From TrEMBL:
Alphabetical keyword list: Hydrolase
Source superkingdom: Bacteria
Organism: Pedobacter africanus
RNA-binding listed as a keyword: no
Identification of the protein by name: Haloacid dehalogenase-like hydrolase
SUPFAM superfamilies: HAD-like
InterPro entries: HAD-like_sf (IPR036412), HAD_sf (IPR023214)
């Protein structure tokens, strides 16, 4: 839960998306499931084996390595990269993405206090928008203003841009994130920063 003193002191709360609002693996593992099914249908590969291997690579080496390693392991033709990328960017998920419960509670508290709520989203805007649309926001989506770092130049000045656009004082803002980028962006313009993991501490 977001500390009470921040709720009282701050007027605007800016959150990252991946692994802050929800666990990114919940999105990626559904993509891998659908791709493995596609490979079973298209190339008669065993979907369970493909999925298991994709999960192993993701856990050990991260999302960037998944297609290349899986293609090498199962002799998947390079032509299927476009299908994999298409799924990553525009998949219709079988299951909605669920927010971390502590983050949901924090967002609800912020809205109840009538404070402003922003998402500052890094990564491919099309894929990130797809994630946002398929997140179960519990009715909070109408209170969110979303900015994509790839559309701001330089990205590290994103919080300055938000402050100027919404007539906010930097001392009234709090950035909640997990990445080095979020921490640096906050430090860059002297905005308070809270590591999202702190919301999970009792």
């Amino acid at each position: 839960m977001i500390p009470e003193h921040y709720l009282k002191e701050k007027q605007a709360f800016i959150f990252e998306l991946d692994n802050v609002i929800y666990p990114e693996k919940d999105y990626l593992l559904q993509v891998y499931y659908l791709f493995s099914q596609f490979m079973e249908y298209g190339e008669q590969l065993n979907a369970a084996d493909v999925l298991h291997y994709m999960q192993q690579v993701f856990t050990a080496e991260g999302a960037e390595a998944v297609f290349d390693k899986t293609a090498a392991k199962f002799n998947i033709d390079e032509k299927y990269r476009v299908n994999f990328e298409m799924l990553l960017h525009s998949v219709r998920l079988p299951l909605k993405l669920l927010m971390f419960n502590e983050v949901l509670n924090s967002l609800q508290s912020i809205v109840l206090e009538r404070k402003q709520l922003f998402l500052l989203v890094s990564g491919n805007p099309a894929m990130q928008l797809n994630k946002i649309k398929q997140t179960d926001w519990n009715g909070l989506e109408k209170y969110l203003t979303v900015y994509f770092t790839e559309e701001l130049d330089p990205a590290l000045n994103a919080l300055e841009f938000i402050a100027d656009k919404h007539a906010l004082k930097k001392e009234d803002m709090l950035m909640v994130g997990k990445t080095d980028f979020a921490k640096e962006a906050a430090s860059n313009v002297k905005v308070s920063y809270l590591q999202v993991d702190d919301l999970f501490v009792n």
